[in-house]
């Protein structure tokens, strides 16, 4: 069962990796101006953007070595019985995926969280941790759509 949960989490991460953050130009023009974004919040958005770029390029090595925490990498490798990079390349890349990142990115000390919404309506929470002055994805938790 844990393997299935991990695969579900990986799919969500993959979708995040392949999609963009934010919304379309039409949606942006209809929205009210958002409050300013802190440096840490901007850095978390940057991680999602890097994940998208690496995913679109099929670069599982970068995703696993630079964007995921070692803990998440170990969890993926144990569940998949192969390297994280290979599992990510085989299962998680989809250039058509779209995702948006909620505006409410929370940062408390060295921990952060962002809620993402996939094009298909699935919602997940990305948990991030700051390691060596760099934000990394540590966990993905599916949320109820709503």
Give structural notes.
The chain is an alpha+beta fold. The protein has one domain: Nuclear Transport Factor 2, Chain: A, CATH 3.10.450.50. The protein is built from six helices and five strands. Strands 1, 2, 3, 4 and 5 form a five-stranded antiparallel β-sheet that branches. Helix 1 (2-18) crosses helix 5 (70-80) and helix 4 (60-67) packs across helix 6. The longest helix has 18 residues, at 39-56.
Spatial shape = globular
Low-pLDDT segments, ≥5 res: 1-30
- Which CATH architecture would you pick? Roll
- The percent of residues in helical segments reads 40-55%
Helix/strand-derived class? alpha+beta
What is the chain-wise order of helices and strands? HHHHHHEEEEE
CATH topology: Nuclear Transport Factor 2, Chain: A
What does the largest sheet look like?
A: 5 strands, antiparallel
Q: Note the beta-strand portion.
A: 15-25%
Return the CATH class. Answer: Alpha Beta
Radius of gyration, in angstroms, nearest whole number: 15 Å
Number of helices: 6
Distance between the termini: 25 Å
DSSP strand tally: 5
The figure for the number of domains is 1
Overall pLDDT metric: 76
Main traits of this protein?
single chain; 146 residues; alpha+beta; Nuclear Transport Factor 2, Chain: A; 5-stranded antiparallel β-sheet; globular; disordered N terminus
Provide the fold topology.
Elements: H1 2-18, H2 25-30, H3 39-56, H4 60-67, H5 70-80, H6 84-91, E1 99-101, E2 106-108, E3 111-118, E4 123-131, E5 134-143
Question: Could you give a quick summary of the protein structure above?
Answer:
By secondary structure, the protein is an alpha+beta fold. The protein has helices at 2-18, 25-30, 39-56, 60-67, 70-80, 84-91, and strands spanning 99-101, 106-108, 111-118, 123-131, 134-143.
């Amino acid at each position: 069962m844990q393997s299935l949960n991990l695969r579900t989490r990986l799919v969500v991460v993959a979708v995040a990796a392949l999609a963009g953050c934010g919304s379309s130009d039409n949606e942006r023009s209809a929205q009210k101006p958002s409050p300013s974004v802190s440096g840490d919040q901007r850095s978390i958005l940057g991680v999602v953007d890097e994940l998208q770029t690496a995913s679109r390029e099929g670069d599982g090595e970068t995703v696993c070595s630079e964007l995921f925490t070692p803990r998440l990498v170990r969890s993926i490798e144990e569940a998949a019985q192969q390297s994280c990079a290979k599992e990510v390349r085989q299962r998680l890349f989809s250039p058509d995926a779209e995702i948006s990142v909620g505006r409410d990115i929370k940062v408390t000390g060295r921990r952060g969280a962002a809620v993402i919404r996939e094009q298909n309506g699935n919602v997940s929470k990305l948990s991030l941790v700051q390691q060596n002055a760099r934000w990394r994805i540590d966990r993905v938790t599916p949320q109820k759509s709503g």
